[in-house]
Amino acid sequence: MSSVLIGLVFTLFVKAYGFWGVVGFGVLLINLSGMLKAAVEVSSERARRRELEEVLVIDEMTGALNFRFLNKWLNEPSDDAVTVLFFDIDDFSVFNNEHGHVEGDRVLKMLVETILGSIRPRDKVIRYGGDEFVVLLEGVGTEGGARVAERIMANLKGLRESYWNKPLTVSVGIASKPGHTRDKHQLLLFSDQAMYAAKKAGKNTLRVWSSECAQAAAATEDPC
Description:
Alpha-Beta Plaits; 5 strands
């Protein structure tokens, strides 16, 4: 179809302007070629930029999103409801000492895979740092967040290897917007405080944020 259209335009140019029609048609083709080339370059540049942005927000070791993504999310205004789950692996430093950091890295990857297999495709898993991970559950309230956390904790029980001294467990803190706060930064802080309260309660458990969680977090010197 494009060849037929070009031929038709060329014929019209020649009939209307003769020799100068041929010249004008040639100029038109050159301009169109330049425009198409520029469009392709812009499209390629956008694709490369998207690819680079994706790489920059992915934690290379675990495949989870990284703190750069979290920081961007924290600073984007939004009125949407969201629940934050703050995960910390119990006694992970002890595990690393007993089994080595290579095995510890494998556990972190397995944790991320387990979380991803327990949540919706649109939910986000973020490596906050070390063995701490944050899960963002958009459009989910506190009760729904607690059910997700319990499902993840249950699925983690299957990660135990025969040579581990004990199964892998996590402490989880839960906070929701707008239920607990409308500020994202405070929301993250509340989920962190709830996680420390779970540590203080004996680990391998979850806590929903409350003022008591803030007090427990403040009184905890070394929760790990």
